[in-house]
Design brief:
By secondary structure, this protein is mainly alpha-helical. The protein contains three helices and no strands.
Length: 82
Amino acid sequence: MPDMLSSVLPRWKEHWGALKARACSKLTSSAKSHSEWKRCLCKECTKRRASKRWREEEEEEKEEEEEEEEEEEKEEEKEQQQ
């Protein structure tokens, strides 16, 4: 039994390493949104997902704030005209 495990384990590690490397190699500037890194669980891909999610949330908040400011300005203009 130990002989079988010792022969399978290195192959499994090699296979897993190749999967991680394949996913991570797609993290180039031209493929930032590639679906491979969304499934990869290595640290770099996880950081990439988290930072992208954070940036998207920040952008959404900024857009909402800008829309609210525009609405307030329009309301103020209407009040001044009346």
